[in-house]
Structures are given as C-alpha cells and as structure tokens.
Amino acid sequence: MRILSIESSCDETACAVVADGRYVLSSVVASQVEEHKLYGGVVPEIASRRHAEAIVGVTKQALDDAGMTIKDIDAIAVTYAPGLIGALLVGVNFAKGLSAANNIPLIPTHHLRSHIAANYIAHPELKPPFLCLVVSGGHSHIVKVDDYTKMKIIGKTRDDAAGEAFDKAARTMGMSYPGGIHLDKAAEGGNENAFKLPHPVVANAPYDFSFSGLKTAIINLIHNASQKGDTLPVADLSASFRKAVVDCLVTNFMKAAKDTDSKTLVIAGGVSANSLLRSRLQAECDKNGYALYMPPKDLCGDNGAMVGAQGYYEYMSGNVAGAELNACATMSIEK
C-alpha cells in the first residue's frame, strides 16, 4: 500500500511516499529554520504562510522522487494534531482537497504517534508491545505502546517539556534557534559536574517529569552572574544542564521499564537525537538486558516519512476521515 503523507505541524513542510508502513520511497522536507532564527523561535503566523507557499512544491517533489503520480497513490495521511493550529490547517486542508479531487482515502494521523513510527522505518523488525520515551520541544511522555494504534501514557511532564527546557536554556546562553542542537554540541567540550543543578521529582508520580524548576535554575544562574559582571563557561553550563535533564529522563524511563516489566524500549521525537540521552540509555539497556531502538538522527525531527509509517497502521485499524476532518492544536496520544 502506497501512502502519500503530509506533515505541517510546526516549521517543516514535509511530504513523503511510504509503502506498507515500513519502506520510504521518497521524503522531502522544506525547513523554515533560517527564517525563524531571526526571532529566536517559531513565529506561528510566519510558519503558516510558509507552509502555504511550500506545500504544493514539496508534494510534487515527493511524487516525482518516488516516480509516481497521484493516481499511483492508495491513500493520503496527514498530521492533524497536535501542533500549531494555523500550520496544521494548511496541511489538513491541502490533504482534504487532494483526497476529494482524486477519490483517495484520507487518514488522520497523530503527530506523536508518527514520531514513534519513525522507528518502524529504521527497524523493520520492531513491533509492539514496547515502552517508549517520547521527547520533543513540546512533549515529554513515557508511553506504553500495546499495539500500533493502542497507547497509554504512564508518565508525562507536569510543566515544560525537555526540548523546551533545552531551547530556553540555550537561548539564555546566547545560542541561536534551535537552541537544543547547539547546546548539545557545546556540552561535548564541557565538564558536566561543574555546576550543581536540581533534579526535580514529582511527588507520588515516579514516572512524571518537571523541567520548569531546572530551567529556572539555569536561567537564574546565568542572570546572577551577568549582574555581577561574571562570565560563566558556556561549555560547562551546557554539559551540566544536559546531564541534569538526561538524568531525569533516564531515571524515570528505566524505573517505568522495570515496574512494567518492559524488555523492549524505544525513544522518539526531536530530543531523541541528543547524544548524551542516546549513549546513557544504550548503556542502561545493555546493563539490564533490554533491547533499545532509536531512530536515526535524520528521522528524529519532523518529516513526512514517519507520518506515512503511522498512517499505514491507522488505515489498517479503520481510521479514515472525510471532509469533516479538522485540525486540533492539542490531543492526547491515547485518542
């Protein structure tokens, strides 16, 4: 089954052609990063306009790269939630038009489910059930994946997501958007024990996260030093902050794995590209005899291929939509 898949939830306009949920025939991404760098983060209105400008060309390129026309496509998958509402509406309405004009089934696809599905592309042998840590700019979840479309959140952030904390800390250090990538690189040359930072825990919720206090601690540390005229070593700050965030993620994820007797672990989302998170989790899984699956770094960020992968399983479970489909800014991965 050949699925044309569309992603426009934030600042990448992406389209891909994916066969049977596992094989990528083409994947095209138009990034807006350079423009949003001017503002230190994504500007929703600009993002929506750029999606409207790019989506036709990106879709045509994906079809051309796959050696196909729209007549060769069996279904269209589109990200409809969660994300920036204006950006989502561009992709949803474009997909609805393609579906109606060509009488092709339309598959509504959840953005976070798609991030998990990126692992199906990279690891054809991977099948549910498994336990997944989903970490991105807006989300930090521990998800029990019972089947391709049946998921349950057993842990989540109570405030900021890990990616948001990385980006805001990096911005305070003077790094450009997207800050998390730059912070990760800077941390490689730093001493992760140079600064003692809090490791927040949530009372009576051992799998939940809280990154707001940690983010505030690093911002206050930098601002206090600046007011005194002191300059703090960016590499050491980055390494110490990265370690604190990763400590929280790894500790809770491994506890959840032990308590749920999960032997197969998966990570997904933009922050799954973080080098320390990947190495720490691999070491912990090797020590405990767990199998760990990680997407390659080019599939960690937003892309159309992951939407096509999840879209296939949504279609197989009977999840199709018509002209009534609308975008949703927030929606649980469980729905």
Structure, explained:
By secondary structure, the chain is α/β, with parallel strands linked by helices. The two termini are 24 Å apart. The protein has two domains: 2-116 and 299-316, ATPase, nucleotide binding domain (Nucleotidyltransferase, domain 5, 2-Layer Sandwich); 128-297, ATPase, nucleotide binding domain (Nucleotidyltransferase, domain 5, 2-Layer Sandwich), CATH 3.30.420. The strands form two sheets. A five-stranded mixed sheet has the order 3-2-1-4-5, with helices on both faces. A five-stranded mixed sheet has the order 8-7-6-9-10, sandwiched between helices. It is globular, with a radius of gyration of 20 Å. A hairpin with a 3-residue loop joins strand 2 and strand 3. The chain has ten helices and ten strands.
Task: Give the low-confidence spans.
Answer: none
The tally of strands reads 10
CATH class of the largest domain: Alpha Beta
Mean pLDDT: 96
Structural class: alpha/beta
Categorize the overall geometry.
globular
Total DSSP helices: 10
Number of domains: 2
Portion of residues in beta strands equals 15-25%
Between the first and last Cα atoms, what is the distance in angstroms?
24 Å
Give a summary of the structure in a few sentences.
With 335 residues, the protein is an alpha/beta fold. The protein has helices spanning 33-37, 44-65, 85-102, 111-122, 162-172, 179-187, 212-227, 234-259, 275-288, 304-316, and strands spanning 2-7, 12-19, 23-31, 75-81, 106-110, 130-135, 140-147, 150-156, 264-268, 291-293.
